[in-house]
Design a protein that fits this description.
This protein is an alpha+beta fold and 170 residues long. Helix content is 39%, strand content 15%. Strands 1-2 form a two-stranded antiparallel ribbon. Helix 2 (24-32) crosses helix 3 (41-49) and helix 5 runs antiparallel to helix 6 (107-118). The longest helix is centred in the middle third of the chain and has 23 residues, at 77-99. The N and C termini lie far apart (57 Å).
């Protein structure tokens, strides 16, 4: 980082112009704080976001496991956990935002609500939404988890918070 002008360093740039002025690599670099002996923090952030040089970006972050992150030079256990927590915060923010006054009367609305939870799953899931008469969500629940590309559910009765339901496979 010493080879960069002070105004070009991500932390200082963020302080002067705000977080919106930073690139994806610079944002991650600010959070990582330090690089390796052989490379600066920008190089470490770039290796995380673009491991093969071209493909990746921020949308790649949630697909990493702690072990996979720790294989990247400059990422130890602490930084790997920090990145995973950052992804979880982003997922929760997206889910809360999607939940705000939603009426679950259209498939697009339901897809938007579940997208952040389900886009990076490594197993199929069957989820059930409980809606009130105004199509607002009362509760949702995972009913079954399957394999990489299939999930099986047998008919059964379920009692959830006093609601008697019958789950059936279709």
């Amino acid at each position: 980082m010493k080879e960069l002008l002070k105004e070009e360093r991500p932390y200082e740039k963020c302080g002067r112009f705000g977080a919106k002025s930073l690139t994806d690599i610079e944002l991650l670099a600010v959070l990582l704080r330090s690089g390796t002996k052989g490379g600066n923090v920008l190089e470490t952030a770039k290796a995380v976001l673009y491991p093969d040089g071209k493909e990746g970006g921020l949308t790649r972050l949630p697909s990493y496991s702690k072990e996979a992150l720790m294989k990247i030079p400059g990422i130890g256990e602490v930084k790997a956990v920090q990145i995973l927590c950052l992804c979880e915060i982003a997922r929760r923010i997206a889910k809360e935002k999607a939940k705000e006054p939603l009426c679950f009367d259209r498939p697009e609305t339901i897809a938007s609500y579940y997208m952040e939870d389900m886009r990076h799953l490594e197993q199929e899931e069957i989820r059930v939404m409980f809606l009130n008469t105004k199509q607002a969500m009362v509760r949702d629940q995972i009913m079954a988890r399957g394999t990489v590309n299939a999930s099986v559910m047998t008919p059964r009765e379920v009692l959830i918070e006093g609601l008697r339901c019958r789950a059936v496979s279709m």
